[in-house]
Amino acid sequence: MADPTTSARPRVVVVGCGFGGLEAVKAMDGAAVDITLVDRTNHHLFQPLLYQVATAGLSAPAIAAPVRHLFRKQANVTTLLGEVTHVDAAARVVRLKDHGDLPYDHLIVAAGATHSYFGRDDWAPLAPGLKTLDDAFEIRRRILLAFETAEKEANPARREAWMTFVVIGGGPTGVEMAGTLAEIARQTLPGEFRRIDPASARVLLVEGSPHVLQSMPDDLSMNAREQLTRLGVDVRTDARVTTIDAHGLQVQPTEGEPYRIESRCIVWAAGVVASPLGKAVAQSTGAQLDRAGRVIVEPDLSLPAHPEISVVGDLAAAKSHVPGREPQPVPGVSPAAKQMGRTAAANLLARIAGRPTRAFRYRDYGNLATIGRNAAVVDLTTPLGHLKFSGYPAWLFWLFAHVYFLIGFRNRLVVLIDWASAYWSKQRYARVVSHIEPSRTRP
Amino acid sequence: MADPTTSARPRVVVVGCGFGGLEAVKAMDGAAVDITLVDRTNHHLFQPLLYQVATAGLSAPAIAAPVRHLFRKQANVTTLLGEVTHVDAAARVVRLKDHGDLPYDHLIVAAGATHSYFGRDDWAPLAPGLKTLDDAFEIRRRILLAFETAEKEANPARREAWMTFVVIGGGPTGVEMAGTLAEIARQTLPGEFRRIDPASARVLLVEGSPHVLQSMPDDLSMNAREQLTRLGVDVRTDARVTTIDAHGLQVQPTEGEPYRIESRCIVWAAGVVASPLGKAVAQSTGAQLDRAGRVIVEPDLSLPAHPEISVVGDLAAAKSHVPGREPQPVPGVSPAAKQMGRTAAANLLARIAGRPTRAFRYRDYGNLATIGRNAAVVDLTTPLGHLKFSGYPAWLFWLFAHVYFLIGFRNRLVVLIDWASAYWSKQRYARVVSHIEPSRTRP
Fold first, then answer.
1. CB contact under 8 A, B193 and A61
2. Which of B13, B59, B137, B145 to mutate to probe the A interface, most A CBs <10 Å?
3. Considering only alpha carbons, which residue of chain B is nearest residue A414?
4. d(C-alpha A287, C-alpha A224), whole Å
């Protein structure tokens, strides 16, 4: 399939080094292909722990590993820092912002997702979401400065607004953020202020549907809600946000009168949408997008008229194929992205070798979510059925699972030390704000 | 001296939580005063290791400790995040940006220094200096992106410019930066790139005077130069920078023709100037400034007509008073700032108690500078005379001295682990760039 006039070996371009892209590249280790891995950042981000950076529990380097270092020993990989803006499927090139075209024989697009404000992009600066390190720094800055400003504020109403934290969205990120915010207020900061009592801070979790952690079984969802309440989070389900401004937000409950919450620190965890690159891929290839902007892929993760292009991870609307059963949609979680990356790479190599490709099958090992110190819920899928547990054992399980999957020995060790120390001291390691002024790097 | 109508105890305001301010506040632990510590950031920065953050060896939280956490158990301290813009010595208030006036009975100003471009402030965005965490992030970003861009650059001349690093100024910071840059190029990055050889990067250290590390004895200065050369740094002394632009700089040697260096990553380590708050203090109190903008203080560190105001640290033009000897100028180093902080606090308490104040005496324990892996110079002042050593033993001494003085047990442990790991693997932990675009937080 490679054009021998331009390259001795098939040229593979992988766009994105999240879980999907990373696994795809790893799975081609030793293969007779020339891989170019392109990403907008220089690091693979361990996104499940990003909320810890946002809540000052971990430093950024603890959860981010330089991509070219990860692949230094995989000789068939060239790492490029750059942003892919277009795909030209006819010419078989991807276009890099400021750096011309990159030709490919095979392409794997793993550009992931970003937050969605459901058409209200003007809310972005008022309620930042959590996808990148910059997002995490911005949220960390807002949380820490809210307490700092409250300490200086003489007006009681304004002081209370600075000490009211609202997390919008009751999915895993929203639950983690709300739980950890309550922990910071009740366990980390008390004793450090002279004019305010940080423990009196309010943390609200606002969710439009009736449940937090909707992807969990009902009993674990209820359990998570109880654990949140015990940590001091005011959980408001069946409550839709209708307006956000610089001083607070307006909430419309499913039943009852709308009301206002005065808050100076609002975090958005309510929705994700596929990377805009999905649209570029669809335009160039004729592939279809689903409502969330994800590219609808064939069973083997390639595109309908373009077997040389695969889409994996959060950017793909993929189905899991188990023989004899109806195909099931694949959830947007990191194990699914990793598995898709491996399948797409295997299929790519099969295609080069003239072998048939395999349909993607998602192996669901279960679901887990953390809530705060000693608080989590776990729902494991075992051959004997579901194994559910919560509270301290679930938190320990979550902790070790995450540290285990963190990339690189050093990170694991440092993260464990940071956590062990945070656990015993109830302190948070990374309470550093590099500048007081609002970040101008946000839109 | 306190006004009983407004406060039961004398109100002490300390501006700045660098080494001077921090030690002053610590020295008043348990005293019958109400201290307010004001700083523009929320952390005490261990500045001697800031170059490690800039060169991706340490994460920011490893060298920054939240101030209010440091003083959580010192009940007479209130910590405020804020920027002091003016001092009104007649009204005895300091003015906070956006937050009104803060009255004091006693004032210690420890606002430190910033980089000086000798009137060429237009050079600041072209050659960032290293004083704050934001500076360190910006320099880290430029160093890492220079190699990334070189890997993408097809034009050989432009590629070479991206792989040419120039450090301006041969003081301790310049020597550390140049040595560590050479280390990154020769030891950390090789093997990770496919199109460039990082080891072929050029690192130049440009210094206007005939020597690097001018404050060191001549033999150690020569030794440092040799160690730098061995690490692969091209040391150019007697060379003044006359122009800096986006593509390089113009150098005028003391003897010979001017020449140009094409470089896309230039670091400024050539000059410091006192904080602009020095001018505000001088205007309000009639105190004099020296050429570097530092406030000229009395022997006891207070101001001529205002015994209730002291200035310490890099903002003070102080002299060391040893009975029977001519007063000597105090160098702008952290041990001097700490000692001044303690003396100013003791004199403040003496004044409240009606006791006489003491003249400041600087105890010089010596001087040390690191150059890179296994490379440093040490000049210890002992009762028996100077003890000088260099190379590996000096580097070990430097390492343990710095880790010892880092604030807080956690930081020390994590820094030691980071370093031990970096030493054995030759890797650098914090190679993370959060955004590709140039930071918009710089002027």
1. no
2. B59
3. B414
4. 39
Q: Write down the ipTM of this complex.
A: 0.89
* CA–CA dist B332, B324 (Å, integer): 24
Q: Which of B134, B431, B432 sits opposite A434 (nearest CB)?
A: B134
- Residue A436 confidence (pLDDT): 56
Of the candidates A78, A191, A194, the beta carbon closest to that of B194 is on A78
The shortest CB-CB distance from B434 to any of A81, A82, A137 is to A137
Encode pLDDT of B84-120 as tens digits.
Answer: 999 999 999 999 987 789 999 999 999 999 989 988 9
Asked if the Cβ–Cβ distance from B434 to A61 is below 8 Å, we say: no
For chain A, where do the domains classified as CATH 3.50.50.100 start and end? 121-270
Query: Which long-range contacts link B216-225 to residues 24+ away (Cβ below 8 Å)?
Result: B216/B367, B216/B369, B216/B377, B216/B379, B217/B379, B217/B386, B217/B388, B219/B388, B220/B377, B220/B379, B220/B388, B220/B390, B221/B377, B223/B377, B223/B390, B224/B175, B224/B369, B224/B371, B224/B377, B224/B390
Show which residues of B are catalytic.
Answer: 176
In chain A, residues under CATH classification 3.50.50.60 are: 11-40+82-115+273-353
User: What number does CATH give the domain A11-40+82-115+273-353?
Assistant: 3.50.50.60
Q: B60 contacts in A (CB within 8 Å)?
A: 59-60, 430, 432, 434
Locate the chain B residue with the closest alpha carbon to A192.
Answer: B72
Nearest-Cα residue of chain B relative to residue A420: B410
The CATH T-level fold of domain B11-40+82-115+273-352 is: FAD/NAD(P)-binding domain (3.50.50)
Q: What is the pLDDT of residues A145-202, one digit of tens each?
A: 999 999 999 999 999 999 999 999 999 999 999 999 999 999 999 999 999 999 999 9
Inform me whether the pLDDT recorded for A409 exceeds 70: no
Q: Distance from A210 to chain B by nearest Cα, in Å?
A: 36
CATH domain B121-270 topology: FAD/NAD(P)-binding domain (3.50.50)
Q: Which three-class secondary structure state does DSSP give residue B415?
A: helix
- By the 8 A CB rule, do A318 and A297 touch? yes
Per CB-CB distance under 8 Å, the chain A contacts of B40 are: 436
> How far is A16 from chain B, CA to nearest CA, in Å?
15
Q: Give the pLDDT score at A410.
A: 62
